[in-house]
Design brief:
Layout: E1 19-20, H1 37-53, H2 62-68, H3 77-80, H4 82-100, H5 106-134, H6 139-168, H7 175-201, E2 219-223, E3 233-236, E4 242-248, E5 251-256, E6 270-272, E7 275-277, E8 284-286, E9 292-294, E10 303-309, E11 312-317
Antiparallel strand pairs: 1-3, 2-11, 3-4, 4-5, 5-10, 6-7, 7-8, 8-9, 10-11
Helix pairs in contact: 4-5, 4-7, 5-6, 6-7
The protein binds FE2/S2 (inorganic) cluster.
FE2/S2 (inorganic) cluster (FES) binds next to loops.
């Protein structure tokens, strides 16, 4: 039983490019008056979001992890965005039906009103989860994410005005409300383009261990007598995959050293019992089974079986 996170992992007792972890350095945006406005605005907004969601608080940082989707093992934001996009598309279809035949399709106007309301509720969830994800981005992905967010906020405001207008007329028939909805939907589509650019072009929230090679057999990575207890070691497999290794008594644990969130070096992280914390954005993983415990990471680390043979520590990818 893991003392720190309570997992039930069974890792066989013992089984070389080696480097010892150094003290982690916090990565924090530094505002400067010489920076462009977008950068300074992003710095300030990210800081505010991180304070609100408790990014700097002590683990387990439940609210932050919840917003990222760590408990699901999948990013939460892209799942929620389907709600406003789908609902507002349905609203647009209802509005078109009503515009074509205002007299005979009163039901369409009411349907549009309900769809817009559902979309607004979904937009709230999409906004809070998206801002949590965005608060851990840097550089070009951060700027693209800001445009993505501003467009979606613009769309949400347009739909808010639209729904107010729909409530102000007895029959829910308001041509201005419908037009505002169309404009809002166009903004959502442009925002989706930026969101796709973040993920598919810039790699935001992509599992950074997804393409790590799986070797079938054990391979020696370092001499047993070089391994001290409760220290993180970076070893590299024959396929060039960096792995972080630790020893506790006769037990050895090893997981991929590349953080699934954005590629941070876990071997340079901090060790708390059997839990390693990434030095880049603070994701925490159980060394026994690689499970993601605290966001922003949502995907668990690949785990390695460890054994000792002939005085050498050997590892083999456990999950194929
Ligand atoms: S790279 Fe972001 S938490 Fe590890």
């Amino acid at each position: 039983m893991c003392e720190t996170c309570g997992c039930q992992s069974n890792v066989s007792p013992a089984s070389s490019d080696v480097s010892v972890a150094e003290a982690p350095s916090a990565v924090a945006p530094v505002a400067s008056s010489s920076q462009p406005f977008v950068e300074r605005f992003s710095d300030g907004l990210q800081h505010t979001i991180q304070v609100v969601i408790g990014a700097q608080r002590k683990p387990p940082r439940l609210l932050k992890s919840l917003l990222h989707g760590t408990f699901l093992g999948h990013p939460l934001h892209p799942a929620i965005t389907d709600v406003p996009i789908g609902a507002w598309m349905i609203a647009a279809i209802f509005d078109i039906i009503w515009l074509v035949s205002p007299v005979s399709s009163d039901w369409a106007a009411r349907g549009a009103l309900v769809a817009v309301l559902v979309g607004l509720v979904g937009a709230l969830g999409a906004a809070v989860t998206g801002l949590a994800d965005w608060s851990d981005t840097y550089g070009a992905e951060r700027t693209t994410g800001l445009y993505h967010a501003l467009l979606n906020i613009t769309a949400t405001v347009l739909y808010l005005i639209s729904v107010v207008l729909r409530f102000q007329v007895a029959s829910n028939e308001n041509i201005v409300a419908a037009i505002l909805g169309f404009i809002g939907l166009a903004a959502v589509f442009v925002a989706a383009y930026f969101g796709g650019d973040m993920v598919f072009v810039k790699g935001t929230s992509v599992n950074h261990t997804a393409w790590e090679a799986v070797d079938e057999s054990y391979e020696a990575v370092m001499p047993l007598d070089s391994v001290e207890e409760n220290r993180l070691y970076r070893v590299v497999t024959a396929s060039g995959i960096p792995v972080v290794l630790m020893r506790r008594g006769l037990q050895f644990y090893a997981i991929s050293a590349t953080c699934s969130h954005a590629g941070g070096p876990l071997n340079e992280g901090t060790l708390d019992g059997d839990v390693v914390q990434c030095p880049w954005h603070g994701s925490r993983f159980c060394m026994r089974d690689g499970r993601a415990l605290t966001g922003p990471a949502t995907v668990s680390q690949p785990r390695y079986d460890v054994r000792v043979r002939n005085g050498q520590v050997e590892i083999r990818r456990a999950d194929k």
